Amino acid sequence: MSNIWNGPLKKIDDWRWLIPREYKKGMLTDGLIFANERMIGEIRKDQAPEQVANVACLPGIVGHSLAMPDIHWGYGFPIGGVGATHVDEGVISPGGVGFDINCGVRVIKTTLSSDECIPKKRDLLSTLFHSVPSGVGSEGKIKFTQPELKKILGDGAKAIIQRGFGWDEDKLMIEEQGAMSGADTTAVSEKAFERGKSQLGTLGSGNHFLEIETVKQIFDPQIAKVFGLYPDQILIMIHTGSRGFGHQVCTDHLRVMQNAMRKYNIYLPDRQLACAPFQSIEGQQYFSAMACAANFAWANRQLITHWVRESFEKVFHRSAQDLGMGVLYDVAHNIAKIEQHRVNGKTLKLCVHRKGATRSFGPGQRDLPEKYCSVGQPVLIPGDMGTGSFILCGTARAMEESFGTACHGAGRIMSRSEADKSARGRNIANELEEKGVLVMAESNATLREEIPAAYKDVGEVVDVVEKAGLAHRVVYAQPIAVMKG
Predict the structure, then answer these.
(1) Is there a contact between 182 and 351 (Cβ–Cβ < 8 Å)?
(2) What is the number of other CB atoms lying within 10 angstroms of the CB of residue 4?
(3) The domain spanning residue 406 has which CATH number?
(4) What are the EC numbers (predicted)?
(5) Poorest-confidence range of 59-63, 101-105, 363-367?
(6) Per-residue confidence band for 2, with pLDDT thresholds at 50, 70 and 90
(7) From the candidates 306, 341, 353, 408, which is the catalytic residue?
(8) What pLDDT was estimated at residue 227?
(9) Strand ranges in 142-261 using DSSP code E only, listed in sequence order
(10) Domains: count for the chain
(11) Domain annotation covers residue 278
């Protein structure tokens, strides 16, 4: 059977494509994909649009089943998928969050320039590589007891900061201030505790990375100033999530959801969308465990922030405070959150699933740090290790159209196995170094899987997001050194 998707896509304008609800039995709403005309050919190459249609079948879905321009096939929901369900009449689905719960991005600022940093980038990268454990199954430098881990699962990044691994102001610059409410450790299995107790403060593998970047272009000087960003500034981007702990939480509750589907007579076209009514015991238990995993991930990025600051202190012989290493912001990519949104003139309480999608709240939202309230939140969009990253800000249009959501990255166009096969025989590290990007990784296989050609053009993805009004470009930064898991 061809993997090409041949379903209907109705062009609404240059940036929006509709899958009408009549396409498939069971669809309760239309699907809406944000993309330009050229991207549509790529998007049809896998079954991700079918997944957009399947998400439209979720009981209690509100608004459209959405997909961002970095859409590609995922488990249940497509990567780049967004589905909001009513908390009283709708469901929650682990497939709408994914296995790496609260995989996300944090950006740390510095006052360093490229002239100061580039001569030391090899030393810096080597120091980071030895300070931040990475790779499959990597273990952290600090072992936490189960009572300590329980506190972290409840308090998230705050629990780590209280132990001396961060600055008090860090938590103000994290989505949910680094601790999602509703976390309940009684919903977490012993196996998840076992997998998580040694993995805090680790980068992991796959597409997770630490990147040292230089600000190359400012698109909006006024908002850049609010964010504290300026040309030639050195930034550090951290991309990782909840490691084996989150994976186990998802695995455990998918089994429960399969039974819940039968219990509540829920019939969906894809069993990977296994779900339960949000207000049911099964739905509440998953939400509580997922919140624990989200808090694990924020704690993880907080510990890594500490190791990054220590590494810079060691190389530059200056304090992290003197180097201006404050957190710009920290955003989640894989999460389900309870939010209020205006839909058809009514304020509704919704469970917003974001699966490979970034919150993009516009100006005036009460959940934002006071510093960003007048302009909207920073939206952190990494590209691939050979090109660069964008920092955007959230918009009022996103609040109206996408439940305050934008893309999360470039989006893959090759599977890991395809990328690995296409890069066999090449020295990826040398190729990148010739372009000015120093790279270190736990394995050459990871570098082959993460070659720049495996990803869409992040500039094109961001262009669609901006022209659709979902976020506004502020800064573009290029990598000078990358550490891969």
Answers:
(1) no
(2) 10
(3) 3.90.1860.10
(4) 6.5.1.-
(5) 363-367
(6) low
(7) 408
(8) 98
(9) 209-218, 233-240
(10) 1
(11) no
